[in-house]
Amino acid sequence: MSIDIETARKVAHLARIAVPDAHLPDLARELSGILTFMEQLNEVDVTGVEPMTSVTPMRLKRREDVVTDGGYPEKVLSNAPDAREGFFAVPKVVE
């Protein structure tokens, strides 16, 4: 698949990237190369291949999900401009 200059301009706009007109042909060529590579990947038979999270087969470590105060709430609240009753105090936003 080939990307033309207008499509490259549109992709740059959507990505919010400022690309000078002089560099649009290079961008179009690079995007075309990426799409060609993706087309090659689509030709690979991956039937029966398990998805991987790492190159080495291992289970992710799990820990118990416990809510804590971090062990030093006084130090954390000492950085707050305003703290009351062990919490950050903020101005009321909604009436």
UniProtKB/TrEMBL annotation:
Keyword Repeat belongs to the record: no
The organism's place on the tree of life at top rank: Bacteria
Keywords assigned by UniProt, alphabetized: ATP-binding, Ligase, Nucleotide-binding, Protein biosynthesis, Transferase
Signal peptide stretch: none
Pfam families (alphabetical): GatC
Enzyme class: ligase
TM regions (residue ranges): none
This enzyme's EC code(s): 6.3.5.-
GO process annotations (BP): glutaminyl-tRNAGln biosynthesis via transamidation; regulation of translational fidelity; translation
Sections of the chain in a coiled coil: none
UniProt GO MF annotations: asparaginyl-tRNA synthase (glutamine-hydrolyzing) activity; ATP binding; glutaminyl-tRNA synthase (glutamine-hydrolyzing) activity; transferase activity
Catalytic reaction(s) noted: L-aspartyl-tRNA(Asn) + L-glutamine + ATP + H2O = L-asparaginyl-tRNA(Asn) + L-glutamate + ADP + phosphate + 2 H(+); L-glutamyl-tRNA(Gln) + L-glutamine + ATP + H2O = L-glutaminyl-tRNA(Gln) + L-glutamate + ADP + phosphate + H(+)
UniProt record similarity statement: Belongs to the GatC family.
Record text on subunit structure and interactions: Heterotrimer of A, B and C subunits.
HAMAP family: GatC (MF_00122)
Known role: Allows the formation of correctly charged Asn-tRNA(Asn) or Gln-tRNA(Gln) through the transamidation of misacylated Asp-tRNA(Asn) or Glu-tRNA(Gln) in organisms which lack either or both of asparaginyl-tRNA or glutaminyl-tRNA synthetases. The reaction takes place in the presence of glutamine and ATP through an activated phospho-Asp-tRNA(Asn) or phospho-Glu-tRNA(Gln).
Protein name: Aspartyl/glutamyl-tRNA(Asn/Gln) amidotransferase subunit C
Organism: Phaeovulum vinaykumarii
Gene name in the database record: gatC
